[in-house]
């Protein structure tokens, strides 16, 4: 917030802001390997994706 405060007016973006975080690599976790996933979560942030069918996408509950 201090680096890029909200001003409440229309203006151009300041693209010269220094990134707050980054990464220098990644590792894959084997599908279905819960232990490997638990170890990864204990070490660093984890991103995940799932493949779903039409029934899941249409679910409203």
From TrEMBL:
What's any GO biological process attached to this entry?
Answer: proteolysis
| Entries under InterPro entries matching the protein | Papain-like_cys_pep_sf, Peptidase_C1A_C
Q: What are the entry keywords?
A: Hydrolase, Protease
Q: Which domain of life is it from?
A: Eukaryota
Q: Which Pfam families match?
A: Peptidase_C1 (PF00112)
GO function terms (MF aspect): cysteine-type peptidase activity
Q: What is this protein called?
A: Cysteine protease
Q: Which organism is it from?
A: Trifolium medium
Give the lineage.
Eukaryota, Viridiplantae, Streptophyta, Embryophyta, Tracheophyta
